[in-house]
Amino acid sequence: FVEIGTVTPRPQPGNPKPRMFRLPQYQALINRLGFNNEGVDALVRNVEKARRKGDGILGINIGKNKDTPNEDAASDYIHCLEKVYPLADYITINISSPNTAGLRELQEEQALRRLLGDLQEARERLWTRHGRRVPMLVKVAPDLADEDIDVTARVLTEMQVDGVIATNTTVSRIAVHQHPLSKEVGGLSGEPLMAKSTAVLRMLRTR
Prior knowledge:
Blueprint: E1 2-7, E2 20-23, E3 28-31, H1 40-49, E4 58-62, H2 73-84, E5 90-94, H3 109-130, E6 136-140, H4 146-158, E7 163-166, E8 187-190, H5 194-206
Parallel strand pairs: 1-4, 4-5, 5-6, 6-7
Antiparallel strand pairs: 2-3, 3-8
């Protein structure tokens, strides 16, 4: 399978460059891309032009524009959901990137319930319109406290979300603190994230 995105309703340039930093000795990378993309309409055009071969699965990852306040975030996610729904085999709800200010606040219990409720209502309408049910997966951060993982697991279970992607990048630098690039702002991925993301995965599975 391949997952594309994160895509937002309107085009946005992302954060200023340089915004990607490789740490080869740690098999790691720090990025602060900031959802740089040409907007959901451009993504739809690109996917429609692309040739799909075989039985590959296409996931499309959706987010909100940087300048959309969290109280209006649902409208951005629903806009993208409606646009990509006919093309996706599954849709990822990205609420866990550390590179869009305030985005991770959408993982808090009440905000998460509201957002997922709005998205599920929209998905029901789209399901009826298109005659197919596209799974929605929620992408979570690796930096949640254990009690927050408990809450997240409870909400996702109660709301019957199709799946969880564990995890996004981490803001922790413990594993790479000796590297001169460790002070760069952004999300750390690669080998140093393995233990942390696996721990979150294990806790979610248990719950």
